[in-house]
Amino acid sequence: MTPKSQRLTLALLALAAIVAAVLLAMSAMKDQAAFFYTPSDAKAQGLPLGKAVRLGGMVQAGSVHRAPDGVTVRFIVTDGKATTPVTFAGITPDLFREKSGVVAEGQFQPDGRFVATNLLAKHDEKYMPPEMAGNMHESRSLEP
Amino acid sequence: MVSMRHRALPKPLPPAGGLKKRGRWASNTDDAPEKPPYSPVIVATLHILANPARFLKIARPLTGIFLGLGIVLIAVAVWAGLTRTPPDYLQGETVRILYIHVPAAWLGMGGWSGIAIASLSLIVWRHPLAQVAGRAIAWPGAVFTALCLATGSIWGRPTWGTWWQWDGRLTSMLLLLFVYLGYIALARADADRGGDGRIPALYGLAGTALLPVIRYSVVWWNTLHQGQSIGLTGSSIDKSLLWPLPIALGGFTFLFAAIVLMRMRTLLAKAKAEARMRRMARA
């Protein structure tokens, strides 16, 4: 084995080891690195009470109710397996709508509800022009 | 100063400076069996002059070609992305930032892949251009990483409702920017002390660990950032919105390559000038 190929083997082994270590660490950190709890996480791991957390999922179709006071909104967050009712008082982001992703910041209540202090809209990886999406979505185009 | 240079110019140029420094590679006996039995001086000359000279001969015309292609393609992509594509059904006009955000992310990560390849060829083959290539890539790579973060933040405000969140994708990309800055500082310090670039190269290889983190952060962790839209099997971006993106990707990549070539030529010219100054100081 020439020194050159020795160096090559060593460097490639080191690189493979680094990448493998990172991938292992990433999968091990899945829970800690998660940006938000999903409703089924909260169900499986028990409600993380008494601390500020984020809850993420889809806004269930037909679940958005705005209270007569004009600022309070109630809706249900679902991940397909479990659901969590959420209340939020404030201005919802433009992209907050039913059947679309949302991340709520706030606290779980002992009764399983989630009281949000802030809402973030989560965009998905689909991009399409308004004509394709149909007229259920109003576009905010600059064109007349 | 000027007259000194004029006096020095007509002399035939011996290998530009650092003979002592580079000589170590040449006399590196562990490489000896693979090399023809040249004297160390000839090997050193080949290392210092032959390759960079050949490189410069190719790099000089390529710089202009890449720069021209880059500017033309970017101009086409800007025109197409601003006027020829429909708005997105949800994001509206803000979707257009995609045509700069995606190339910036691609070049931020691609730049580090380039540094990793340069580091590997420096450590394994002691390639004489690897050190220069790594240093040349680092700055534009860092700039495009910063551009990716800035455009993402500008897009995030209207789309998500926040400028910044510490989610997996955003945080790992910010880390990449810091890793770039660390590499730039380390490589410069190493070069200023006449180092052979091995320490920055080890750092360059180690930093590669971040690339899979960025790539898979949106797959394995739940993040605010959406999953990838463009994969090997297709794209979840509609064709009518997608088509300027490859043009922008090509344009920015050519621009990046042109900047890297310019910086490599500058670094080589600087090294040559410094070596000449040292020789004159000795004479």
TrEMBL record, chain A:
SUPFAM superfamilies: Heme chaperone CcmE. One of its GO terms (biological process) is cytochrome complex assembly. InterPro entries: CcmE, CcmE-like_sf, NA-bd_OB-fold. GO terms for cellular component: plasma membrane. Heme binds at residues 123, 127. It is found in: Cell membrane; Membrane. Keywords: Cell membrane, Cytochrome c-type biogenesis, Heme, Iron, Membrane, Metal-binding, Signal-anchor, Transmembrane, Transmembrane helix. Residues 1-7 are cytoplasmic. Residues 29-144 are extracellular. It is a single-pass type II membrane protein. One of its GO terms (molecular function) is metal ion binding. Belongs to the CcmE/CycJ family. Heme chaperone required for the biogenesis of c-type cytochromes. Transiently binds heme delivered by CcmC and transfers the heme to apo-cytochromes in a process facilitated by CcmF and CcmH. HAMAP family: CcmE. This is Cytochrome c-type biogenesis protein CcmE. The lineage of its organism: Bacteria, Pseudomonadati, Pseudomonadota, Alphaproteobacteria, Sphingomonadales. The gene is ccmE.
